[in-house]
Every structure is written in C-alpha cells, then in structure tokens.
C-alpha cells in the first residue's frame, strides 16, 4: 500500500479489509478502543453540527444519510433498513461511510460500515451501560439473537466485564448460532425458552429484535428494580420493543432527543416526557444512575456522531495496518482549472499506448 | 470485468474509467445522450422526492449531500465547494455519487462525479437553452473560462448547433487554454479582452465564474433583446453574477424554486418574484420563449435530479463498456443474520492460509 499523498486517491476500507482490521486488532480490543473514541466525541458533544438523519422512505424500507461535523472533520453514513431483505438473503441493514476534511472538502476515507455499524452500536451500548448500569453487573439477557447480538455480548464483556449471557430469540436456531459463535470467548451462556426466562435475575437487558412493528418484547412485570435496559432494536417510527409502562417507570437516557422522540421507544410517550441526554452523563455534567433500585433505560437509535467516531477510529488504524486500498475517486488535473484538458491528455495517453 | 451478481459487490466508476467512458462514447455523444436522460427525468418531475440539498457550511466552504428518489431508484451526490482550493492545487468542486435500489436499499453504483458533474451541468444548460434560446442561435459568449467552460461549449454545439464562441476571463491564460483545448473541435473561437466585447452580438451568454462573492459579471446595458442567459456560476448564498436589473427584465426559469431562491441569481429578488419551472417547459405544460425579443434566463444552481439522471445514464453504459471495477462494499454473510460468523470464517480462512 502506498501512502495516500496523491490528491486523486481516497483510502478505501472494503468488507474484507474491515474484517482483517477487526481480527488484527482483536474484536474486544477494537470495541474497547472504539468506545474510548465515542466517549471522547460525546464529551465534546456541543462542538458538533447535529441534524436528524435525512430519510427517504418507501413501502419496502428506508434509505438514510446521517451527516455530522466537528468543524475540522465531516462524516456521513449511508444506511438502509429493509426488513424484508432477510427473506431474500440480503442484510436488513447495510451501510458505508465517508470522512472528509472540512478545510478543503476532500474525502479522506471511504469505508464499509455494515460490520462497523454493528461494532459501533455495540460499543455505544456498552459505553451507556458503563455509565448507567449497576457497577456489579455481570449478567445480561439478550432478547433477539440476530446479526448484532454477538457484537453486543463482546462489547459488554470487554467494557463492563459482563460474562453471563442469557439468550432468547423467537427462532431458537438464532440463539443456538449466537451461543456457538461465542463459544470459547469467555462467557457462561444459557439459551432460554422465553424472554421471561432470559430476564429473570439479569442485571442488564438488551433488546435487539428486527421486525418493523410495534412489538412488546418486554412487558412491565418482567423488569425488576435496579435493571439497566439497553433498547437497541426500536429505532424507527412504528418500531418499538418495550411496553409503555416500563418507560414510565424508567430513568430514560437518549442520544439526540429530536431524533429519539421520532425513532426511539419514547415515540410512545408525550413529546415533553422528561429524558436525559447521555452525553451530559459522559461529560460529567449530570449524574447517571441515581440508586441501586432505579431502572435505567438507554433508548438507543444510533446517531451520526457515533458513526463519525467509528470512521475516525478506523482512519487512525490505516497507516499501521495498511488494511486499505487506494481508490481513484477524485479528479486531479495537473492544473486545477483544466478539467477538460485532463480528458484530452487521457485520450492522448490511450492513443499512444 | 465480472458481471455484478455477487451481493457484496458494487460497480465503481473511477476517475480513470469515467474518462475512458467519455472518450469511448465520445464527449459530444455522451452529452447528447445524457441530455436525453435529463429530459426524460424532467418530464416526470412530479414522480421525484425533492428536497433542498443538505449543506454543512464552514468558513472555507461547504460540503453538501443531494439526495432524490423516483420511487424505484435512489441517488445522492456528495459535493464540496471550496473556492480557496484552486490556490492549493485542488479542485474547487469535487464530487462522487451513489445510485441505489429503493426496493432493497443496496447501492448499485458508486461513481466519481467531478467530471460527471461538469458534463451534467453542461448537458442541463444545453437542454434549457434548447427550450429557451432563439432556435437560430449560433453564437455564445462564455464569461469565465475555468474547469466547466469546455464542457459548456461542447454541450451547446452538440445539442443546439452553437459553433461561434467568444471567450472572456479576467485571467487571459484561462481563455487561451480553453481555446487551445477546443481547437479542432469544429468551433470558430474568438478570445475577448472584456465581457462587453464577448457579449456583443451573442445569441447566448453563459456566465460561469467561480468566486464566492456578489459579483457583476454582466451589467444591464450589456444584455440586448432576444438573448438567452445561461447563468451557471451563481449557485450559493452570497454568490451571484448578474446585475439585479437584468433579472427584472428577464423571463426567469429555474430548476427547483425553494433551492434557487436561496442559491441562485434570484436571491437578489423578492421571495415572491415570479419564476417559471423549467420542467414544465420540458414537459410541454408551459411555453418557453414568448417572443424573439424576450430575454430568457436559466438561473441554474444544479439540482439532485440532474445528478440522478447522470448516474442513471452512466449505469446504463457499464455492461457494454466494462469500464468499472468491482468494489467489495457490502457485507454479504452466507446466512444474513450471521454477520459475526462471517468474521469468524474470515479468521479461520486467514489462519489456514
């Protein structure tokens, strides 16, 4: 790999290179380091341009652009959500992203983000739990054992020391696959036959189901005092996972309220229902958990700054690992005003070849 | 090149392949065919999702995302505008774009769009002039002879039969370069020493200067009856090229009024000053030019649908030319829910290699 000094070249991290990057660094180390970058960016939350995602909805799903900037770097993610894809052998969610230099507008990184989004979502969940769950938490129930479940488990192990997992999915083969994939990774794992069974005695409950509908993965009687709920799956209008009564009993923490009120579990509540911004807890401006009996809820929908952090982290790893390709993405004429001349010189080059 | 059947693969048109594509098809044929696709899409204007661009402004410039969808395809362009870049040997404007399948959200094309944007802007200008300029138009003045000037000239020749060019730039070397680049392409070219000199007797006046400031490239006395003005350069808040009095005498045609009122020449006018939508002329719903003495003005700022058309056209040329690369952009596990398992299988593959 050459150093990226040519103005036309943008470093590109393919799916293959993202996998190699994660394996080279180690999944748990990657999640831990990424969590640190997310925390860094959440501590300087006020420095970012924030805007709700730009969504294009259709009957089948949604395509979204999620831009943000800290004034020095600009990042955006393209992400789709198409629940029916799974039945056709495609991913429900795929994503890629770009990081750019605000000073000249040139992209500095293009990266796959399907895998990276699963990693950043898991790192974000664990960061929130680090600040909100009881410090002694060791046991986590994971309701919904799809594409994100192993990443969630590994992040909570690496960052919080969670080692006991209870897995539940309406499809038992999903729980079996998750348990098999996590075998030998230092967990004690129990697959469960009901969500009630899974949450019994759990310190943390992660809900990460995929259907686009109002569902009640957790009902009120299943959540006891002191539990931290990591609600990942409810992330668009019409898609929620928790019974409203749980929300009314919980201390609710969110990423960016204008977006979460539309997309998160709290779409079930009044628009003025009090919620707390997670960045204030991370920045030390506000307390997290108030008592051992408080039910804390991280109503996670995924915000552009987390993707920005993830792209920033990946970029920081390129030089040492060389795990990228050079992409000829930007026209770079010898004389900047001579774009057409570049075409003429290409013609001359091809004719003389 | 392999057929793009693998779900992980997105066809990618690099700068090199875009140049080869234009040269293989021929620049004028490319512009003519692209103009037809733009007209097709403008005729079904009402089928598109339309939204003003999503801009991130900084002291140095702007980074924008321009999405649109016709319900079947989704496209967006990333584009920056940084006037100071030229002094640092970079392009003022660089761009890339993506076309996706609305049905499953998967990207179907990633393409460089720095060159493509110059081509689509020129094709759009010529389409507007075809519907607005006097049919006998043969002479065009081009004020501002930077990166877009040759493309404008070639589009007006290919689509309208404009053969006489008068070039003016505050930097005479820019006019000389433009004239040299267009030598042997079938034009009669005169480089001029003032904009007054250039516009004298011209049927069409194209203004395409680059400075981000309120400028008066054309003053009122320079524009006679019957002229068509193709105002390309004024395209963001605070950047205009025409004296307000010209606007008040002109029949003004625009792409998407909510965007043009912010970015175009008409930012100088009252918010309710009457303007006509170009798509209505192209669709036959409204007359274009009213008389031989009318001054028509296309207040061009560039709209997402034009980029969508350009991406659609480029994609239609991939199979026959093979001028693309396969980009490993999308994670494609054997079993869609098993994203983490894909990582494990990559690990096993690397260990056994």
TrEMBL record, chains A, B:
SUPFAM superfamilies: NAD(P)-binding Rossmann-fold domains. Gene3D superfamilies: NAD(P)-binding Rossmann-like Domain, ornithine cyclodeaminase, domain 1. InterPro entries: NAD(P)-bd_dom_sf, ODC_Mu_crystall, ODC_N. Keywords: NAD. Belongs to the ornithine cyclodeaminase/mu-crystallin family. This is Ornithine cyclodeaminase. It comes from Mycoplana ramosa.
């Amino acid at each position: 790999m050459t150093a990226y000094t040519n103005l036309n070249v943008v470093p590109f991290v393919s799916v293959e290179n993202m996998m190699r990057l994660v394996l080279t660094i180690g999944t748990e180390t990657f999640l831990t380091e990424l969590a640190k970058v997310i925390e860094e960016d959440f501590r300087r939350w006020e420095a970012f341009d924030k805007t709700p995602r730009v969504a294009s909805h259709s009957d089948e799903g949604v395509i979204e652009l999620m831009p943000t900037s800290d004034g020095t770097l600009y990042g955006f993610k393209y992400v789709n959500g198409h629940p029916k894809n799974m039945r056709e052998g495609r991913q429900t969610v795929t994503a890629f992203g770009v990081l750019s230099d605000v000073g000249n507008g040139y992209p500095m990184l293009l990266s796959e983000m399907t895998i990276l989004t699963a990693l950043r979502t898991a790192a974000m969940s664990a960061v929130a739990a680090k600040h909100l769950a009881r410090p002694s938490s060791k046991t986590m129930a994971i309701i919904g054992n799809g594409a994100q479940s192993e990443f969630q488990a590994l992040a909570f192990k690496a960052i919080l020391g969670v080692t006991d997992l209870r897995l539940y999915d309406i499809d038992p083969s999903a729980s079996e696959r998750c348990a098999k994939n996590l075998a030998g990774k230092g967990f004690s794992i129990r697959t469960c036959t009901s969500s009630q069974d899974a949450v019994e005695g759990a310190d943390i409950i992660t809900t990460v189901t995929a259907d686009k509908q109002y569902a009640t993965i957790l009902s009120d009687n299943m959540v006891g005092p002191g539990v931290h709920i990591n609600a990942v799956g409810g992330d668009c209008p019409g898609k929620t996972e928790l019974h409203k009564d749980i929300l009314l009993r919980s201390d609710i923490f969110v990423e960016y309220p204008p977006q979460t009120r539309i997309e998160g579990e709290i779409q079930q509540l009044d628009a003025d229902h009090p919620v707390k911004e997670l960045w204030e807890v991370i920045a030390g401006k506000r307390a997290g958990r108030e008592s051992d009996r408080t039910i804390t809820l991280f109503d996670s929908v995924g915000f552009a700054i987390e993707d920005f952090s993830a792209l920033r982290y990946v970029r920081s790893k390129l030089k040492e690992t060389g795990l990228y390709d050079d992409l000829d993405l930007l026209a770079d004429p010898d004389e900047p005003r001579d774009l057409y001349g570049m075409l003429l010189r290409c013609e001359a080059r091809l004719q003389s070849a």
